[in-house]
Design a protein that fits this description.
With about 575 residues, the chain is of the alpha/beta class. The chain is built from 19 helices and 15 strands. It has helices at about 10-45, 55-75, 90-115, 120-150, 150-155, 160-165, 175, 190-200, 215-230, 245-255, 270-275, 275-295, 315-335, 380-390, 410-420, 440-450, 500-515, 520-530, 545-555; strands spanning about 185, 210-215, 235-240, 260, 300-305, 365-370, 375, 395, 405, 405, 430, 435-440, 460, 480-485, 490. Strands 3-2-1-4-5-6-11-15-14 form a nine-stranded mixed beta sheet, with helices on both faces. It has a two-stranded parallel ribbon with strand order 7-10. The protein has a two-stranded parallel sheet with strand order 8-13. The chain is elongated and about 100 Å long.
């Protein structure tokens, strides 16, 4: 497995620090474990050194060089030298007890085999003293760290503990080799996932890497970071919006990227409930315009970064994510059937002008990676809990039963790169994130790790926000097929009529730019069942071209197709 560290050097600094701490702990343990059994022998003879048999002292000195490396190896296997004692809890205590029990077993077997038996109280007292000696400095470190760094205590929790599972490990060498000698464009490069994706791509030998984002400060900072860490990289940083078809046309015509990772999208579920038209313009139109530019300029592979809320969506965020997926599926289907020139265009502005057709021979492949609630993201539930704890509370939780799936940024990037290299045209991939994590339990755990008591030092408030304001967290809501030995699923959403879906997009876009009150209902209905085109959706739309209306007439909707294919269900999920 390739270690997925960013190029900023933070991971290396953390590793170097804990390697030194681990060496120090190992030296201490080497002395402490032998001292523990010497004290056990001393206590066995009523705390009188002169009463200890000379043979006992002799074999204790001869056995120490053999026992010490065995004991340290056991401690290492039991993960006693990892960066985990800042937030020591039940798991760490159990690991320490297991390590000492195994070391005690090695002591019994070794002494019996080499020197004969010893009284039982020697082994029992020695094991207890060894456990105390091993735990004492680690627990003191955890206590002192929490006192000196209260603002960091809630953040320094092990990834496994936050996820509720072991992180999924993927070999990135083959996935990254797919990008070698290619021009790669990443939209949304200034975000958490986009930035980490760029860091991974930067070191794999791409021909050119293009950063594209509307946020200038984040994109500029990432550009400087990558230039410093990979000076040989041909890097271009551009500012622009994926809603601007003219800007996209200029970028794609100038650089002709062969691979596009489209991650520019809004992702704050509660915020988008109050501004559904912005979700439509950015998440839906943005995906459409970027994909259209990619098809127009010979892009080979287009990877959409979606979210698990797109499975059976019940919110504006989920519906806008799902509609973006459906648009790309409609594009891919038309390309595979040789009908790319029949695809209708879509403008980001209400300007009457002739829409350009796609060129002949379009061969762009579209794949999607559905991401979960990213642990390190500023908008994740865990990050929100950590900020609230540092501020002294209260910590807000939707309700005691609210839960969501979590993934790390590295897992997200691994899934994206896997989808780029291995997914077949039209496939939607998602990560097996295990059981959803209970947010109430997670909040209480973080409060305890920060040295506070839940409901006493820091209160927990249940907001009771409605289901549509929570993040959908049920990627298993659709039919799935697991890819063997990968921890990745292929999602299989319900089929839909692609022609009718594309025919209704102009009407939805018109409603979004006019900020109509029914945009949310239109959006949810469209992802549930495109249905027949309504008045104003295409035929009466001033931007609908004759080709669009002709395509609509060519493919009348059958009775079978008129039935809803995908139901919208409410799920209890939390941001």
């Amino acid at each position: 497995m390739v270690r997925m560290e960013g190029l900023n050097g933070k991971g290396k600094k953390r590793f170097e620090h804990w390697r030194l701490v681990g060496v120090g702990l190992a030296v201490y343990d080497a002395l402490a474990v032998n001292l523990a059994y010497f004290l056990a022998l001393w206590l066995r003879y009523d705390c009188r050194f002169s009463a200890i048999p000379e043979d006992g002292l002799r074999w204790l000195g001869r056995f120490a060089p053999l026992y010490t490396p065995v004991c340290l190896a056991i401690f290492w296997l039991c993960r006693m030298y990892r960066d985990q004692w800042r937030h020591a809890g039940d798991r760490e205590l159990l690991q320490a007890v297991l390590a000492v029990c195994l070391a005690c077993a090695a002591q019994i077997v070794g002494v019996w085999a080499l020197f004969g038996g010893m009284p039982a109280d020697y082994y029992v007292v020695g094991a207890l003293l060894q456990l105390l000696a091993v735990l004492l400095p680690r627990l003191l470190y955890r206590l002192v760290w929490g006192i000196l760094h209260p603002e960091k205590a809630a953040k320094d929790v092990s990834v496994e503990e936050l996820l509720g599972r072991e992180p999924v490990k993927m070999d990135m060498e083959e996935a990254l080799s797919f990008l070698q000698n290619k021009t790669v464009l990443v939209t949304g490069a200034g975000g958490l996932i986009g930035g980490e994706l760029c860091r991974q791509i930067a070191g794999c030998g791409v021909k050119k890497l293009i950063l594209f984002d509307v946020r200038d400060e984040q994109t500029g900072a990432l550009q400087r970071e990558l230039k410093e860490q990979a000076p040989q990289l041909d890097l271009v940083a551009l500012v622009g919006s994926v809603q601007d078809d003219r800007r996209l046309e200029k970028v794609f015509s100038q650089y002709s990227p062969q691979v596009v990772f489209h991650g520019a999208a809004y992702s704050d579920a509660p915020l988008l409930e109050g501004s559904p038209w912005e979700a439509v313009k950015n998440n839906v139109l943005g995906a459409h315009q970027t994909a259209w530019a990619a098809m127009s300029h010979g892009c080979q592979r287009f990877v959409l970064l979606s979210g698990d809320e797109a499975a059976k969506p019940s919110s504006v965020l989920g519906a806008s994510r799902r509609l973006g997926e459906m648009i790309l599926e409609a594009f891919g289907r038309a390309i595979r059937e040789g009908r790319s020139q029949e695809l209708p265009g879509l403008h980001s502005r209400r300007v009457k002008k002739e829409l350009a057709l796609l060129p002949e021979g379009v061969n762009t492949e579209f794949v999607t990676a559905r991401l979960g609630n990213v642990l390190e993201g500023s908008g994740s539930a865990v990050a929100m809990f950590q900020r609230q704890i540092v501020q002294g509370g209260p910590v807000t939780v939707p309700d005691p039963g609210a839960a969501c799936h979590l993934m790390t940024a590295q897992e997200a990037v691994g899934l994206i790169l896997y989808a780029c290299a291995h997914a077949k045209d039209g496939e939607i991939l998602a990560l097996d994130m295990g059981e959803p994590v209970n947010l109430d339990a997670q909040a209480r755990k973080l409060i305890q790790r920060s040295g506070h008591r839940p409901d006493q030092d820091i209160s927990i408030v249940y907001t009771g926000c409605p289901a549509e304001e929570r993040r959908e967290a049920s990627p298993t809501a659709e039919e799935q097929e697991k890819i063997a030995d990968s921890g990745i699923y292929i999602c299989r959403p319900a089929p839909f009529d692609a022609a009718l879906l594309l025919a209704r997009l102009p009407g939805l876009m018109k409603a979004a730019y006019e900020e109509r009150g029914d945009v949310r209902e239109r959006l949810l209905q469209l992802v549930s069942d495109p249905g027949p085109a309504e008045s104003g959706d295409s035929g009466d739309d001033p931007e609908a071209t004759p080709q669009t209306r002709q395509n609509q007439k060519k493919r009348p909707r059958s009775r079978r197709e008129s039935k809803p294919q995908q139901n919208v269900e409410n799920t209890s999920n939390a941001q």
